[in-house]
Amino acid sequence: MTSKSEYAYKRVKEKIIRGELPPLSDIVEEKLQEELEVSRTPIREAIQRLSKEGFVYVYARKGMIVAGIDINLINSVYEVRLLNEPYLMRTACKELSEEWLCRMKEALTNCPYGVDEPEYRNFYIELDHELHSVILNHCKNQFLIDMMGIVSDHSQRIRIRTSRKNEEYSRSIGEHLEIVEACLARDPARAEAAMRRHIETAKEEAFKYNII
Question: Where are the domains of the chain?
Fold first, then answer.
C-alpha cells in the first residue's frame, strides 16, 4: 500500500513535470493539502524529497518554489543522458521483445490524432517516455537505475515544456522509429548511434524553443 507521503511525492512531482506547477512558481502547502486531501506532514516530506532531487527550492523561513529550467539543468540532464543512454540502448537492444518493438513501431507510425490536435503531441510524448522507460527497465545496475530515474523525470519535464513550441516534432518521431527499427534488426551499434543522435537533437531543441 502506498503511504501518504509517497502518494504526495508522486502527485506533486507529476504536477511539476506536467507544468501544472510552472518553473519558479510558489508552492503553497495549504493548497496542496486541500487538493491532495492529506495533512501537512506528507506534503512536507514530499517537498523535502523533491528538493533533494532538484525539483523544488526550499528557502528557510521564506517559502518554497518550483525549480527553474535553466542552462545548467539542461546541460546536466543531457550530459548524463549522453553518457549513459547509448550504453543502455546497446545492452538492451537484443533483449527487448519483438512483440513490444512491433507494437511501438505501429504506434509511432499510425498516430490516431491529427497534427493540429493537442492529443497528437501528448500521444508521442507518452510513447517517448515508454520507450526510454522500457530500455532503462532492462538495466541490471540498481545505482544506474536510481540515478537515471531522476534524470528521466527532469528530462520529461523539459520535453513537455519544449513540445509546446516545437514545430519540428516529426523529426523526433523519425528518430524513435530509427531506434526501434535498429532493435528489430538486433543491431546494437546502430541502436546505440541512433539513441545518441536522438539525445543530441533533443538537447538542441531544449535550447532552441526558448524554455529557459
Answer: 4-66, 71-208
Residue whose grid cell is 550530459 = 79
pLDDT in tens, 181-192: 999 999 999 999
Residues 60/50, Cβ–Cβ less than 8 Å: no
- Say which CATH superfamily domain 71-208 falls into: GntR ligand-binding domain-like (1.20.120.530)
Nearest to 21 by CA among 8, 32, 30: 32
Separation of alpha carbons 60 and 44, rounded Å: 13
Q: 4-66: what fold? A: Arc Repressor Mutant, subunit A (1.10.10)
Alpha-carbon torsion, ordered 101, 103, 109, 114, to 10 deg: -140
Handedness of CA 133, 137, 140, 141 (dihedral sign): positive
Mapping DSSP onto H, E and C, the string for 147-194 reads: HHHHHHHHHHHHHHHHHCCCCCHHHHHHHHHHHHHHHHCCCHHHHHHH
Q: What is the pTM of this model?
A: 0.90
Query: Please, are residues 122 and 111 in contact by the beta-carbon 8 Å criterion?
Result: no
- Identify residue 26 by its one-letter amino acid code: D
**Tens digit of pLDDT for each residue in 122-140?**
888 899 999 999 999 999 9
Which of these, 67, 68, 66, 69, lies nearest to 28 by C-alpha position? 66
For residue 40, the one-letter residue type is R
